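PROTOCOL LOG
Step 1. Enter all chains and additional molecules of the complex.
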Amino acid sequence: MNIWTYILKRLLLMILVLFGVACIVFFIAHVIPADPISAMLGGNAPDEVIKRVEAQLGYDQPLIIQFYNFITGAVVGDFGLSLRTNNPVMQDINNYFPATLELTIFAIIISTVVGIVLGVLSAVHRNKIIDHFSRIFSIVGVSMPVFWTGLLLLLLFYYRLGWLPAAGRLDFFTIPPDHITGMYLLDSLLTGNWEVFKDALRHILLPAFALGLLATASIARTTRSSMLDVLKQEYITTAKAKGLKKNVVINRHALRNSLIPTVTIIGLTFGSLLEGAVLTETVFSWPGLGRYITQGLLFLDYNSVMGGTLYIAFVYSIANLVVDILYAVLDPRMRT
Amino acid sequence: MMDKRGNLLNVSDLHVVFYTYRGVIKALNGVELWMNKGERLGIVGETGCGKSVTSRAVMNLIEEPGKIISGSVVFEDRDILKLKEDEVRKIRGNEISMIFQEPKSSLNPVMNVGFQIAEVLGKVNNKSIKSQYKAAAEMLEFVGLDSERVMSMYPHELSGGMAQRVMIAMGLAPNPKLLIADEPTSALDVTIQAQILELLDDLVEKMGNAVMLISHDMGVVAEFCNKILVMYAGNSAEYASTEKLFKKPMHPYTTGLLKAVPQIGRTDELKAITGTVPDLVDPPSGCRFHKRCPQTMEICKKERPPFIQVEEDHYVACHLYSQKGGENK
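Step 2. Run joint prediction.
Step 3. Record the structure below.
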C-alpha cells in the first residue's frame, strides 16, 4: 500500500471518529439537568421572555433537529454563538486555541527531549545512579497531578525565589507581537522581537513544565524499557561484532528501533496534554482554550463547550495521523 | 599459559561465568582451542555446552551478566582480553567477523541491506558509508544475490536464505582473517542449508579465510571442517583433525556422540548417551562428564582431566589417557 492511500484511509476513519465524538458531546451536553436559559436570565424572568430567547437560540426545536443543525454547522466550522461572550464560538476558539497549542507544543518538546534522553541514559547505565534518579523522577512525575505540581512550582519559583512570573502569557505592559499564528513565542521569533520572546518564554516555562512532567515521566519509562529490550536483540550483537563504537551502536542501531513504542506514547500524550491543559491553564491563568471551555461549562454555555471539545478532538486526530505517518518513516515494516 | 599451538588463534584456559538469580553459571571451564591461518575448525557439542559463549568470548563480546574471569585469547600475537576496548574494536569487523544462527533477527530491521553492508566497509576502510555502496553491491553479487533489487530491501522483505547470504556478504566484505559462523544453517530449511554451506565453502575457498564453524550437527562439521573440537559442559573434550576424530574417537563422550549420529549403511543400533547435560550452576566435580560416562573411574570424580596430546593433531581431556588414569587402570 502506498503512503497516500494509507493517509487517505486514515482521513476517512478520522471523519468517522469525529462524527462519534460529535454525537457524544452533543448528547452529554443535552442530558445535563441544567437549564442554560434560566441561568442566563435569572429565575424570575417572565415566561414570554424565556420563550423568545429559547426560540432565538433554537432550543425550542426537537432534539433531532438541533442535532442536525449542530452537525451541519460543525462541518463548516460554525458552532453558533457563545452565550457568554456573544461572539461566534469559532472566533473565540481562534482567539484562545493558539495559547493552548503553544503551551502544549512547548510542553511536548520539553518532555520528548528530556524523556528520551533520560530513558536512553537510564537503559544504557542500567542500575547506576542516573537510572535510579530517572526511575524516581518517573514515579514522582506519574503520581503527582498537574494542579499540585503547578502549585508547588508557583510556590517555589514565583513566591519564594521570585524568578518567574505566576500568571498569563506576557507581562501586563508587554505588547503582544503581531498576530501571525497567535503563538507568541513563534510570532515574536518570526518578527525578530526579542524582548517579547524573552518575556513569553519566562511566562511559558512554569506551566509547560507542570504540564509536561507527567508526559516526561511516561516517555522516559517507555523509552527505557524499549531500549533495554532492543539492546538485547541480536542485531545489536551484530553491530557490536562489526566493531562499531558504543555510541554508534546506541544512537544509530538501537535508538531508532526503541523509539517506535515511544512515538505511540508521544501521540497519546499529546491528547492528555490538551486535556491537562484545562487544569494547567486554570492554575496559571493561561488564557487558552481549556480555560475557555471550563468557563463555558460553568456558565452553561453549551455551544462553546461542544465547539471547543469537538475542535480539540479534531486536533487530537490530526496529531495521531501525524504519529502514524511518523511510524511509517521510522519503521519500514509499517510501510507495506 | 600454554605454548602457541596455532599461528592464528590460541585460546587457553578460558573461564566464563554468568551471574544469575539462580546462582553463578560456570559456562566455560578452561576451554582450550587453537587455529591456524586458513584452517576450518568445527566446534560441536550439545546445546548449552558453551559453543556460542566461546565464539563470543573470542571477540570479547561477553555481555553482562556474563564475565570472562580468566584465560587468554591470543589472536596472532595480541591477547584480545587484555587489549583496550578501542583496540579490540579495530579487530572486530576488520579481522574477525561473525555470522549468526537467526539471520533475519541479526539484521537491523530499520536499515536497508545496502546500508548495513556499506556500514562495515566504511568502518573497516575508514571512509564514509555512502562511498562504500558500490563495494557493498559487489559483495551482494558475490554471494549470489541480485544487488540492484536487494540493496534497498529491508530485512523483513528477505527470506531466511537470502538473509543469511546477506549476513555472509557482510561478514566476508572486510575479508577477515577469521570468520566465526555460529550455527549459520540451523534456522534454515534443509535444502537451503545445503546451498548456504556450499556457498560458504566456495567463498572461503576463494578468499582463504579461516572459519570457526559452530554446530550441533556432526554431519555438517565433518563435511566442512578439517579440524574438530568437541565440547562438553564448558570444557574442551577432544580436539583432532576430522579424519582422526571419526576414525579413532578417544573421549567416551565423542564415541557416544558418533554412535548417536545416523548414517547410511550403518547396521549397528543408534545409541543415545544416557543422562542429561549437567546443571552448570552446580557442575559435577572432577570430570564434568563422569556421571554419564560408561568408563568412569574413581579419579574422574575427583580430578579434572588435563587436556593432553595423545598423537599428532589429537588432543583429549580424559583420565583414560592421562598418566594418573593409566596407573589406575
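Step 4. Note key features.
Chain A touches chain B at residues 233-235, 237-245, 253, 256-257, 330-333, 336 (CB under 8 Å).
Residues 3-75 of chain A form one domain.
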